[in-house]
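Researcher: Quick test of sequence recovery. Tokens follow.
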């Protein structure tokens, strides 16, 4: 793969002559992932898991399970991994839940170098078919976009906890196109291609702020007030349209540290306790 500056220059030049080719190259860069290294505190969590695999579009997806009881499904964000939830997994097990998680294509111990929304939705649907309705789905960042799209396509869960979640898919795209320095022609070609790949006419159709209008299951939205990757205004967009949602705001945890903040974990557990009473 080309270096970022070279790739940016290339797709912008090609867009004037062959926009479809420019779009395909950009899409490969947009979907490229990194197998980020696990922190040392995640190793014990990984070693205690029961491991299995499933196949999605010729990729081997690493699946992990822990414990016995009502099942909680965990979904990590872009360039994340299942064991980022190590602290929450410990708490869930202590409260007699079982936990199911996976590394998305191109992430963690799963194969591949790319991932996309449709692939990840397919993983969730396969897990649903095997494990049945989940007590709750807990998702981080882009993982919540995946989870909400999957819920509209048959994923069964009694509730959702979305952490550091972007309400608008276009927010992610615009950040990418700015960082990648796409010019207008290349951006338009890429957007056309991406809409076709997702089978939509507008990115609103796969955005949480649009899909949430039809959601009625309980939802806890968790966000840090100083998240620099996904601003807290995105959380308010979700709350404003999701009728059964509530907001919990953390302080000083940013976009990723929030996953192992004790106050956040305690709030998630109290949310689950309330579900038991309903």
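Model:
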């Amino acid at each position: 793969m080309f270096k970022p500056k070279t790739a940016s220059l290339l797709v912008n030049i090609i867009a004037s002559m062959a926009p479809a080719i420019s779009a395909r190259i950009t899409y490969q860069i947009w979907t490229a992932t990194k197998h980020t290294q696990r922190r040392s505190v995640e190793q014990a969590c990984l070693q205690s898991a029961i491991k299995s695999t499933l196949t999605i579009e010729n990729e081997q997806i690493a699946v992990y399970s822990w414990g016995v009881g009502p099942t909680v499904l965990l979904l990590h964000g872009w360039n994340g991994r299942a064991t980022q939830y190590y602290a929450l997994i410990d708490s869930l097990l202590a409260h007699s839940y079982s936990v199911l998680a996976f590394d998305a294509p191109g992430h963690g111990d799963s194969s591949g170098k790319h991932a996309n929304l449709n692939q990840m939705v397919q993983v969730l649907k396969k897990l649903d078919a095997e494990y049945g309705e989940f007590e709750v789905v807990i998702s981080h960042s882009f993982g919540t976009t995946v989870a909400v799209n999957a819920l509209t396509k048959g994923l069964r869960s009694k509730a959702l906890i979305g952490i550091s979640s972007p309400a608008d898919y276009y927010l992610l795209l615009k950040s990418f196109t700015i960082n990648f320095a796409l010019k207008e022609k290349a951006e338009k070609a890429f957007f056309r291609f991406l809409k076709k790949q997702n089978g939509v006419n507008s990115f609103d159709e796969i955005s949480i702020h649009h899909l949430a209008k039809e959601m009625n299951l309980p939802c806890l939205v968790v966000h840090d007030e100083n998240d620099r990757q996904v601003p807290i205004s995105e959380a308010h967009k979700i709350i404003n349209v999701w009728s059964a949602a509530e907001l919990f705001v953390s302080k000083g945890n940013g976009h990723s540290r929030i996953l192992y903040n004790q106050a956040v974990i305690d709030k998630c557990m109290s949310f689950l306790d309330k579900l038991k009473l309903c």
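The mean pLDDT is 94.
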